[in-house]
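Readers outside the structure-tokenisation community will struggle with the description of the input data as it stands. I therefore recommend that a typical entry be quoted early in the introduction. An entry of this sort, consisting of the sequence and the corresponding backbone structure tokens, reads as follows:
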Amino acid sequence: MKNKPVILVLAVLASTFSSFITGVDGQPTVNRDTVILAAHEIINETTYCGLVTVDSLGQPQIRTMNPFPVKDDFVIWFATARTSRKVREIKNNQKVCVYFANHLSAKGYVNINGSATVIDDKELLVKMKRDYWDGIQGWQDRFVLIKIIPQSIEVINYKHGINNDPGTLRAPTISF
């Protein structure tokens, strides 16, 4: 199974966090290790996600994005046109949200709130190059990277029994 090393690394990473996520009453509700594993499971099964930025009027803007594979630290990377609206919006307001879900399988969702930075580094862009960019003339000059550092992650994963709190309907959340 190709995901065994990832699962092992996730277990080690998760062990560095506290053991439980606390509920409204301060009682342990969901094991943090399970939430981290469940989040990566949904993210790894999702090709596209939603990136939410905030425009100059304070209005949220969402678009479909194809992230680079998300590693154990939940840092998210995208490539986009340097002249895109999202680049302007991130430069004005670094607060973003990334939403992962496969609605066909209805397994749950992952919502990551974080801080985004536009990275204009051609050497890094070339290292992260995707094969299909070969068909885009001058991609090295057209693209920049977006790096999102997570601040919190909210997870619902029915397979792992991670559901909304029945009283508040809030999903289990981990802060970084």
In short: Residues 3-28 have pLDDT under 50 and may be disordered. The chain has one domain: 4-175.
